[in-house]
Design goal:
The structure holds 2 protein chains of 2 kinds. Chain A starts with 5 loop residues before the first strand and ends in a 5-residue tail after the last helix. Chain A has one domain (6-189): 3-Layer(aba) Sandwich (Rossmann fold), CATH 3.40.50.180. Chain A has helices spanning 17-25, 46-54, 107-118, 135-143, 160-168, 180-189; strands at 6-12, 33-39, 60-63, 74-77, 83-86, 92-95, 123-126, 147-151, 173-175. In chain A, helix 4 (135-143) runs parallel beside helix 5. Chain A has a 7-stranded parallel sheet, sandwiched between helices. By secondary structure, chain A is an alpha/beta fold. By secondary structure, chain B is an alpha/beta fold. Chain B has 2 domains: 8-71, no CATH class; 82-272, Vaccinia Virus protein VP39 (Rossmann fold), CATH 3.40.50. Chain B contains 9 helices and 10 strands. Chain B has helices at 8-22, 31-44, 50-59, 61-71, 82-97, 113-124, 140-148, 156-165, 223-236; strands at residues 102-107, 131-137, 150-152, 176-179, 182-185, 193-197, 209-214, 237-245, 260-262, 269-272. In chain B, the strands form 2 sheets. Chain B has a 7-stranded mixed sheet with strand order 6-2-1-7-8-10-9. In chain B, strands 3-5-4 form a 3-stranded antiparallel sheet. In chain B, helix 9 (223-236) links the parallel strand 7 and strand 8. In chain B, helix 1 (8-22) runs parallel beside helix 3 (50-59), helix 3 (50-59) crosses helix 4 and helix 5 packs across helix 8 (156-165). The relative contact order of chain B is 0.13. Classes of the chains: A alpha/beta, B alpha/beta. Chain A binds chain B through residues 65-67, 79, 81-82, 85-88, 93-98, 100, 108-109, 112-113, 116-117, 136, 139-140, and chain B through 1-3, 5, 8, 30-33, 35-37, 73, 75, 216, 219-220, 222-223, 226, 246-250, 253.
Chain lengths: 194, 274
């Protein structure tokens, strides 16, 4: 039996794309984890985002598909206009229900369901953004023993989202945009708490 | 904030109640979504505990109707994914036009916005008079809305944009009458609609169609239930009939995949080939 991958959920909005580029550059292809990126974005240009991200990383980049099993060494992107949920068997579900925090995909929805599925083994990262989507999700990750990471607001293009997170949740790690990749890589070398 | 997640055991208990007492089978639904919807409903209807919700469900058949309506997702819009409707307009409708009589099924139509969109396409192609459009859903409540054809006025700007992007050439506002905050669509559009409850989980085929649309319904089902529904659609489609799914749904993992070929546009439309 292969060990199920650890999950690293990454949420971001305005000003977060460059941070994600820098973050994934620091990660090796043989990552014992899967990254799931939930970005607020327009519903067009889906493939463009996949292609852009693929140029920056040796991880396999693809959009998350419904019922798809989550595999290590992959970077999954939440498709536009659907909420992305994580099932207990570590597969994806899509959901086109009402927007949450004016957003679909909503970072709160994905973080919440990932923390329900993964508990203490989850790592959740919140980046630059102009609204508070993701803050409640981080609170739940924390409550279930997962690790919470927030981009240092001073290094964020739009600091509202990370500031709200730090204000409302006892965040485990606050780090500069440039340091996030290294930190995540280091964390994933340590044995998970699954 | 929608944060109250029910426990796994609680969800199973509740689904079991629904099956045993009311005959609704939700066991093939994707758990993450159902669980989130239950948590949302506990907040929405101000239950103080899961036990209280469960008691209400077990004892109040009237509430169960609301429960089922809220657990399932009824989000929809007119001309949703305009490029899909453009493909219907330009590639599918002309094929249907050659038939003496057209039968279409919208499975899981929710409040019917997409059914009215279809009626508009048929009317513009001068085919509505020889068509029947079946619209079904598990929820009687949403079907009542579909029957009325009255939708919130503030959505019309978006719908009008969608309509134009789908290749619509007319003045979209000509299809409805605005009154206060509502837009009432022309009765003519629903003259060929047959609106009825149908449960994809437990009901069977009831006719043969040339086009079945089931968009953003299967994402809520697990693979086994998806296969049941695909078999039902296969059985309900004429040879060379079309099956249209939501933007993120696919036949590619299904038991019927070899009997269908996806059209060469980028839309989620398949044709039954055997």
């Amino acid at each position: 039996m292969t060990q199920p991958p650890r999950l690293v959920m990454i949420g971001g909005s305005a000003g977060s794309l460059d941070v994600i580029f820098r973050l994934i550059e620091a990660l090796p292809a043989a990552l014992p984890a899967a990254l799931v990126v939930v970005l607020h974005r327009k519903s067009t240009g889906d493939n463009l985002l996949v292609e852009l991200l693929a140029t920056k990383t040796s991880l396999r980049v693809k959009e998350a598909e419904e019922k798809e099993p989550i595999l290590p060494g992959h970077l999954y992107i939440a498709p536009a206009d659907y909420h992305l949920l994580i099932e207990k068997d570590l597969s994806f579900s899509l959901d086109d229900s009402e927007k949450v925090n004016y957003s679909r995909p909503s970072i709160d929805v994905s973080f919440e369901s990932a923390s329900d599925a993964c508990g203490a083994s989850l790592i959740a990262v919140l980046l630059s953004g102009a609204n508070a989507d993701g803050v409640e999700g981080l609170r739940q990750v924390k409550e279930r023993g997962g690790l919470t990471i927030v981009q240092e607001p001073g290094s964020a293009e739009v600091d509202y989202m990370p500031r709200q997170a730090i204000k409302n949740v006892a965040i485990d790690i606050v780090a500069d945009a440039g340091a996030l990749g290294g930190i995540i890589n280091e964390l994933l070398r340590q044995p998970g708490e699954r | 904030m929608e944060t109250l997640l029910a426990k796994d055991e609680d969800v199973e208990l509740l689904l079991n109640d629904l099956w045993e007492i009311y005959g609704y089978d939700f066991t093939g639904y994707s758990r993450a979504s159902v669980k989130r919807r239950i948590g949302r409903l506990i907040v929405l209807d101000k239950f103080t505990s899961f036990a209280e919700l469960r008691y209400r469900v077990r004892t109040d058949a009237g509430y169960v109707r609301r429960f089922v309506e809220e657990i399932t997702v009824n989000v929809t819009e007119m001309f949703r994914d305009p490029s899909f409707y453009k493909a219907l307009r330009e590639e599918i409708i002309p094929v249907l036009a050659t038939r003496p009589f057209i039968r279409i099924w919208h499975a899981g139509c929710a409040t019917g916005e997409e059914v009215y969109s279809m009626a508009i396409l048929l009317q513009e192609a001068n085919l509505l008079h020889k068509s029947l459009v079946y619209a079904t859903d598990i929820n009687p409540g949403v079907l009542e809305k579909a029957r009325k054809g009255i939708f919130p006025l503030h959505h019309m700007k978006q719908y009008s944009e969608n309509y134009i992007l789908s290749g619509g050439k007319k003045d979209f506002s000509g299809y409805y009458t605005a009154k206060y905050d509502w837009a009432k669509f022309d009765d003519g559009l629903k003259s060929k609609m047959i609106i009825s409850t149908h449960n994809l989980v437990s009901d069977w085929s009831f006719n043969e169609f040339q086009l079945i649309l089931c968009r953003n319904v299967l994402i809520y089902f697990d693979r086994a239930l998806q296969d049941r529904v695909f078999a039902l659609f296969d059985e309900s489609l004429e040879k060379l009939g079309f099956l249209a799914l939501g933007a993120r749904e696919s036949l590619k993992f299904s038991v019927v995949r070899n009997k269908f070929a996806q059209l060469e546009n980028k839309e989620k439309i398949w044709r039954k080939i055997t």
